[in-house]
Amino acid sequence: MYRILLVDDEILVRDAIKENIDWKSMDCELVGDCENGKQAADFVKTHPVDIVLTDILMPYMDGMELSHFLHDNYPEIVIVIFSGFGEFEYAKKAIQYNVSEYMLKPVTAMELREVIGKMKEKVDQQRKEKEKLESLTKTSQDYHKNALVIRSKAIEALVGCTRDVQKSLDELAKMGIYMDSSSYRVAVFDMDLFSEIHEIDMEKRQESALMAFVLFNVADEIVTGRGAGIAYQEGNNRVCILFMGDHCRGFSQETHEICEEIQNKVKEVIGIEVSAGIGGWVKNPEELIHSHEQAENAIGLRYLLGGNLLIDTEEQKEERSLSLQQSLNEMTNGIRNGNLQAVNHALSDMKEKIKNARADKSQACVCLQMILRHAGSCWESVTSGGEDLFHKRELLMGKVTEQKTFDEAFLLAENYVHEVFERCFSMNSSSGQKQAVLAMEYIRAHYMEQELSLNDICSYLNISTSHFSTIFKEATGGTFLEFLSRIRMEKTKELLEQTTLKNYEIAEMVGFSDPHYFSISFKKMTGKTPTEYAREKRSV
């Protein structure tokens, strides 16, 4: 039987719904009807309710406030909201309160029966989940009372070297576990759903310990049945296996097969994917910590390669060197030449290189930041404006490090590259813009020449000074001298930050013949003298 509460401030609406639905035939009971959210909130405190059907606009406490109250205090209750046409967009905001359905007034009896049928299915699913969790909780509580906990803690201490190795060996010997094999290795299992690659709320954190117990039971049964070693729990969420035997090709293959069998069995039993890393072989118990570290590092590749991994570190090739310079050059040339195919090929090549190199998260993020910088430099080379793209690049520099997986982070960089490509392609689409781009590239290549002038640029482009001034202003928003000065000052900042050159040496390098005029120009642009700027930056 499904218990339903009706909430609406219009008595005619409540009466119509009560009378036009055959509740008994739907295996439902209308346990109450309330005229506002406050009455409904008081009602559920003393009466069990499965489904709440509520209007939006009501006195004292409206449907949104009621949904908020139920979400925080009775999350198992399924909520259906009625709303008028003008309230519908407002009602959809209630998604944050786990509202399951929105119905636009007026509601027909047929529509309501159909929705109630769907809500019954949701209640059934929640009841099953609750029963599963209660069963797992009881089993878990029983487990924590027996000797398996002591065994797991003793093996965890041995593998992690958190206390004297001999004491751990003595404790295990008292349990009938003797570390007298010729070789050992450790496998680490971690459930993808509860890992750092997914958002984990409080409910999932509680459930993870229970699911880890299921994983432990599966691993323990399979490993014990094969006589290959011992399964143990590590903390609340991870399960490990201490393999013991001869370091030979046959047993190495068997350990791999055992781990794969555990993964498949867990997926079959509870529908959760598990990643596993298998550390290398060691000769002595004192060295187990190294095998465990290798297994953990293999699990860490989940950021780069996704979930459901099975990585045997002894089968992995040596780390390849990672160089993206050629691909970066191909990408920037593609952007400048309007060749989207070359850009996409370079992006795909870099993604593959990063994955093949088994880069860790920090190294992968550095590579993504390089891609962002090079794409941004292409935009800088064709315009002095477009601050939105420069600002976006700076935001993305940090954002790529916050993503849960490499694929998500790479997509951010890839989208930015495509946006830069489109903007550059648009900028280069007319002859005037192309000439402005060529002029900016010429200035960037010759800014250090003291005699560089407008006439030099016009001779290079073979156009008149007046025509050049027009197209250059349209493209950059400024004059030739303003752009040249900005380029020289950018280079000055770079030299002041990264070298210990004298001011007069820097002045000469960036195209100023008069050091005094150089200092005046720099202060006018930055508000600081070159010496003040260098002192400030070099002290950071």
UniProtKB/TrEMBL annotation:
Q: List the GO biological process terms.
A: phosphorelay signal transduction system
This protein's UniProt keywords? Coiled coil, Cytoplasm, DNA-binding, Phosphoprotein, Transcription, Transcription regulation, Two-component regulatory system
Chief location bin? cytoplasm
Q: Which residue stretches, if any, does this entry annotate as coiled coil?
A: 109-139
Q: Name one GO cellular component term.
A: cytoplasm
Q: Where is the Response regulatory domain?
A: 3-120
Q: Which residues carry this modification: 4-aspartylphosphate?
A: 55
What are the subcellular locations of this protein?
Cytoplasm
Gene3D superfamilies of this UniProt entry? Answer: 3.40.50.2300, Homeodomain-like (1.10.10.60)
Q: Where does the signal sequence lie?
A: none
Q: In what residue span(s) does the HTH araC/xylS-type domain sit?
A: 437-536
InterPro entries reported for this sequence? CdaR_GGDEF (IPR041522), CheY-like_superfamily (IPR011006), Homeodomain-like_sf (IPR009057), HptR (IPR051552), HTH_AraC (IPR018060), Sig_transdc_resp-reg_receiver (IPR001789)
**Molecular functions (GO terms):** DNA-binding transcription factor activity; sequence-specific DNA binding
**What CDD domains does the record tag this protein with?**
REC_YesN-like (cd17536)
Q: What does this protein do?
A: May play the central regulatory role in sporulation. It may be an element of the effector pathway responsible for the activation of sporulation genes in response to nutritional stress. Spo0A may act in concert with spo0H (a sigma factor) to control the expression of some genes that are critical to the sporulation process.
Q: What is this protein called?
A: Stage 0 sporulation protein A homolog
